[in-house]
Amino acid sequence: MLGYIAQRLLIMIPTLLAISIIVFVIIQAPPGDYLSSYVAELQSQGESVDPKKIEFLRAQYGLDRPLFEQYFVWLTGMLHGDFGYSFEYNLPVTKVVGDRLWLTFIVSFTTILFVWVVSFPIGVYSATHQYSIGDYGLTFLGFIGLATPNFLLALVLLYVANSWFGVSVGGLMADKFLDQPWSWPKVLSVLGHLWIPVIVIGTAGTAGMIRRLRANLLDELQKQYVVTGRAKGMSARRLLIKYPLRMALNPFVSDIGSLLPHVISGAAITSIVLSLPTTGPMLLDALRSQDMYLAGSFLMFMAALTVVGVLVSDLLLAVLDPRIRLHGGTTR
Amino acid sequence: MSVDVEDRLEAPHLAHYVSQAPFDPYAIDAMAPGQERYYLAGQWKLMWWKLRRHRLAVVSGALLLLFYLSITVSELLAPYNLQTRHTDFLYAPPQAVHFIHDGRFIGPFVYGLDTKLDMERLHWVYTPDPAKVEPIRFFCRGDAYDFWGVLRGHFHFICPAEGGTLFLFGTDRLGRDMLSRIIYGARISLTIGLIGISFSFLLGMTLGGIAGYYGGWIDSLIQRLIEVIRSFPELPLWMALSAILPVTWSPVLIYFGITLILGLIDWTSLGRAVRSKLLALREEDFCTAAILMGARPRRVIARHLLPSFMSHLIASATLSIPNMILGETALSFLGLGLRPPITSWGVLLNEAQNINAVAVYPWIMLPVVPVVLVVLAFNFLGDGLRDAADPYH
User: Fold this and answer.
1) pLDDT tens-digit profile of B83-104?
2) Do A152 and B372 touch (CB under 8 A)?
3) Measuring CA to CA, which of A61, A139, A303, B101 is 20 to 30 A from B319?
4) Diameter of chain A measured on Cα atoms
């Protein structure tokens, strides 16, 4: 098991490196370096630029050196917790980001919990009551959930809440807590606001998960050991829980790998529509104003979150499934 | 002893009997015509037969066909031109179609709109005026347009009454007819999925094919690449890539840029599928035979291996088209994708970003309907195709 963990951790390193290279290429892609465009922008607004500061920044981020070295400056900086300089906010990225990374993490994590909690009973019900009215209804609902893009669902929800109940559902906490330090009332306020984005982001994932659990469970239910168990007089419920359900649960964990990028994607756009204080809206702003360091750090953070999530799911799967633990492979 | 034998030999024989009825030695193996048709049918025919039984998939396929046919004649279908502005009718609500006026049937018509300025809330209020009966005209002369940008024409399938209005889906901020804009938008939204998927198909088949056929370090390299791309959340990466498209590009270039970006990230799942199938298939006898006969890897992959699971590939491609359509919609909605004057459903929805506008003028959210319809239809069709791709199952 330890060997497996070590192997998985080692694989993570080249993956993260490759991701950082892609992100760096994206940062570098717009023509000119950001300092020159920053200077040009300031001058176009008639503001004076302190040449010393520009020089300092240029040296700090190694912009006068070749691309290869710039990449290493950026990478080592990131390892030290220095994510670069946001030229729009005129602050180091770390300061601009603030709570947003945590809130993104919380929203994503809660969404995955939501997906599990909701899809588990529904999936089991659909599989054990195959072709019943309930199964058809739930499958249909699932399809709708799968087909409706997150941002539209968020819009519709905003519209409904606004026009029918007269409440605004945007944001992730009551306005008065916005710049406050963390406290119990603030946490409660966040929890009170959290359910809407979680439902919006979670629907597509939930629908997919239900379909997969249903299909897996149906496959398992047809196997001989189930027939044997039934022939030996096991009660239906006990039989279901004892064997096929445990088999069908595997993809539940292994699918985090594919679920997580979707959740983070969904969270990005949903938080833009609902104006949540997470990474999504800031990423959009940064991209719009070509504030590439900021955008790059967000992209890096989201990708890293996914990689770590996949790692956790692989480890969980290894705990659940001895075949993986002993052979050191994944089922995917 | 010998006498006995001769006796028997000379005994009168039974006349040699041969049945004159035609005899078919294969009669036992013969099949009913229906069966024979089934056994001799090619893979695609079998697939079609199986698909035909999947009611929902067929209906979805027909719906998609209609949608795709509509984009060839968008100009004729739309009651107005894409850019026609009705400055007297900004944010006009949808007009309902009626058939009976004053208890008398007079065919489809709409009631004209009365305009009034609400001084308190400072926006125009439109109310249907029962006195103004405006019958809808069919096969008529309306707004001028350039058919596919070349042929100048005036002919429409449906137009408003002379001097009247016909806003079945309402109008937008600039007084442009939403229905017409949705019909025109289909052209961009629907083709972007097709072009994107063909690009990702090409990438997925090439890279997945190479990985699966050669195995070894090439395989692990491509596998790692797929893993890296997959660990990016799709949408933020799309956003970042489309944000770095130069602002100076023309709308058409942007359009192709966006499809390229969509395809560049989408090929991974297809590549994986191709690879795993190839890994299994390259051990088969027919593949060895082809190699022994001197076929080059390219030919073995493209001629012998890929066709054996092409149907699966097409099914999975169908399932990922909606993803592309949604991707474009999301990008344009955020203002990072296509930009006006190119009109796609996402660009139309960009107007719906302002939640106040949505609350007061909910009909600007109507482009959602075709998006959801098309995405659902592709999903159902893809599901049906996937089931049908395995005809012997």
Assistant:
1) 778 777 778 788 878 787 777 7
2) yes
3) A303
4) 86
Percentage of residues of chain B with pLDDT beyond 90: 2
Enter the pTM of the model: 0.79
Q: Is A303 in contact with B231 (Cβ distance < 8 A)? A: yes
Q: What is the pLDDT of residue B65?
A: 92
Q: Does A261 touch chain B (CB under 8 A)?
A: yes
- Give contacts of A 16-35 with B, CB under 8 A: 18-19, 22, 26, 29-31
Contact residues, chain A, for B234 at CB < 8 Å: 261-262, 265
Rounded Cα–Cα distance for residues B216 and B227 (Å): 17
